[in-house]
Write a structure and sequence with these properties.
Residues 7-406 form the Enolpyruvate transferase domain. The protein is of the alpha/beta class. It has helices at residues 22-31, 48-60, 86-89, 97-106, 125-133, 164-174, 190-201, 233-245, 261-270, 307-315, 335-340, 370-382, 393-396, 402-408; strands spanning 2-7, 13-17, 39-42, 63-66, 72-75, 83-84, 108-112, 137-141, 144-148, 156-158, 180-184, 205-207, 213-217, 226-228, 249-253, 273-276, 280-284, 294-295, 318-324, 344-348, 351-357, 364-366, 386-390, 412-417. The protein folds into two domains: 2-18 and 231-418, Enolpyruvate transferase domain (UDP-n-acetylglucosamine1-carboxyvinyl-transferase, Chain), CATH 3.65.10.10; 22-228, Enolpyruvate transferase domain (UDP-n-acetylglucosamine1-carboxyvinyl-transferase, Chain), CATH 3.65.10. α1 packs parallel to α4, α4 runs parallel beside α6 (164-174) and α6 runs parallel beside α7. The radius of gyration is 22 Å and the shape is globular. Bound molecules: uridine-diphosphate-2(N-acetylglucosaminyl) butyric acid. Residues 23, 26, 93-94, 117, 121-127, 161, 163-166, 187, 304-305, 327, 370-371, 398 line the site of uridine-diphosphate-2(N-acetylglucosaminyl) butyric acid.
């Protein structure tokens, strides 16, 4: 088991380069299944969710070759299995994209019910609604979802809630369905546009991605393409907050500033300076940090995936801030850990009240999900003393070499391996010898 040890109190300074977006990559890699030829995918982040995606593709029979640090050539023409087993799906929620991609290509799919971060109830009813609307039938048994279709035909799909996953899955499943599919109340996140751009680069006909109505005219064949994943909006936002929390000064490179607007606006209200360039932004702090209120919402609103990080910053600001979480009911689980570091936060349902104390103190803490882990790193960087973060496998699901990038900015952070408690043998315990 690995953990991070952070000696806090160092300003972050210098330059950092953002990796490809997790939530785009985990859909684009399965989307390659739809192609009749090999594809090359660039700017793929080195994170465990991506490694699981690649294992699943290989297990299915695809040939995946690494062409350097962040580039893969994937040949889907050798796929001969159409199943994602529990051992992979339990580790990565995005395994549900294999449902849409396999259904769209082969008219059948068998995927274990997905796992992922524990954020509360995570239904997939809207995914199933989309698949059935275009002609698939499904059964759920022993934790497996089986999809089959004689033929997929375009149809109207109206989502009851705005959902990123179901919007992407509907696109994957409908891209080759006969006729026109119209998705209404679609999610508008940058990764939805990225997936549509990738599918279109393979010959798909998708219009309107990035608005709430997406129109897909089915095509018979998709050809190979070379495509670069967009930069990770949430990784960039996490670094922006980390710089602010340490009152640092950093140029964050390989970003799309437009994707960061809601984060930028909130940080400016808190007192953070931000200067935008074409594909980079400079973030620095030269004055006090002040309270603000944040409500999470689907894009272009403030992303839920940045909620715990900004909450940490607000602990370091002056005044009382209110955070309202509108997407995931269990996204305040990190609060108990931050309290161990001296934070004054009261949670009532989906609202958290933060009394900014201006300081945090190092403590042993545990990451309970990916973004909670990122928030604890930020807290550790800004805190006085030493912070030890356990369960960092959550963080490694979605951040590409977080500690290396932070060290290059001057942070005192190291990853250490500690023996698994179950494997520890008590000293002087003769029975254990
Ligand atoms: N929902 C339903 N039914 C469905 C699907 C979703 O009711 O069939 C509800 C959910 O319960 C939730 C809301 O709709 O309340 C939004 O869920 P969404 O489907 O948008 O979430 P997701 O696709 O499962 C993705 C990201 C999450 C991110 C959310 C919201 C991936 C792999 N995951 O999840 O990312 O929080 O969108 O933006 O893209 C993360 O990166 O830390 C993370 C959790």
């Amino acid at each position: 088991m690995d953990k991070f040890i952070i000696k806090g109190g160092r300003r972050l300074e210098g330059e950092v380069t953002i990796s490809g977006a997790k939530n785009a990559a985990v859909a684009i890699l399965p989307a390659v299944i739809l192609s009749d030829e090999p594809c090359v995918i660039e700017n793929v982040p080195y994170i465990s969710d991506v490694r699981i995606c690649i294992k699943i593709l290989r297990e299915m029979g695809a040939e995946v070759t690494s062409l350097g640090k962040d580039t893969y050539r994937i040949d889907p023409t050798t796929i001969n299995k159409f199943c994602v087993p529990y051992e992979y799906a339990r580790k990565m929620r995005a395994s549900y994209y294999f449902l849409g991609a396999l259904l769209g290509k082969y008219n059948k799919a068998r995927v274990s019910m997905p796992g992922g971060c524990p954020l509360g109830d995570r239904p997939i009813d809207q995914h199933l609604k989309a698949f059935t609307a275009i002609g698939a039938k499904y059964t759920l048994s022993q934790g497996m979802i089986d999809l089959t279709a004689d033929k997929l035909s375009g149809n109207q799909i109206f989502f009851d809630v705005v959902t990123v996953g179901a919007t992407m899955n509907a696109m994957l499943a409908a891209v080759k369905a006969e006729g026109l599919t119209v998705i209404e109340n679609a999610a508008k996140e940058p990764h939805i546009v990225d997936l549509a751009n990738f599918l279109n680069s393979m010959g798909a006909n998708i219009m309107g991605a990035g608005t709430d109505v997406i129109k897909i005219r089915g095509v018979e064949h998709l050809h190979g393409a070379t495509y670069a994943v967009i930069p990770d909006q949430i990784e960039a936002g996490t670094f922006m907050v980390a710089v602010a929390a340490t009152k640092g000064d950093v140029l964050i490179k390989n970003v799309i500033p437009k994707h960061l607007e809601s984060i930028t606006k909130k940080l400016e209200k808190i007192g953070v300076n931000i200067e935008q360039f074409d594909d980079s932004i400079r973030v620095w702090v030269d004055g006090p940090l002040v309270k603000t209120d944040v409500k999470t919402a689907p894009h272009p609103g403030f992303p839920t995936d940045m909620q715990s990080q900004i909450a940490t910053l607000l602990c370091l600001a002056e005044g009382t801030s209110i955070i309202t979480e509108n997407i995931w009911e269990q996204r305040f689980r990190y609060v108990d850990e931050l309290r161990r570091m001296g934070a004054d936060i009261t949670v009532n349902g989906k609202v958290a009240l933060i009394e900014g104390t201006g300081k945090l103190m190092g403590a042993p803490v545990k990451a309970c999900d990916l973004r909670a882990g990122a928030a604890l790193i930020i807290a550790g960087l800004a805190a006085s003393g030493v912070t030890e973060i356990e369960d960092i496998f959550h963080i490694e699901r979605g951040y590409d070499c977080m500690e290396g990038k932070l060290r290059a900015l001057g942070a005192d952070i190291e990853k250490v391996s500690v023996p698994d408690k179950a494997e520890e043998k008590p000293e002087n315990d003769k029975a254990a010898v």
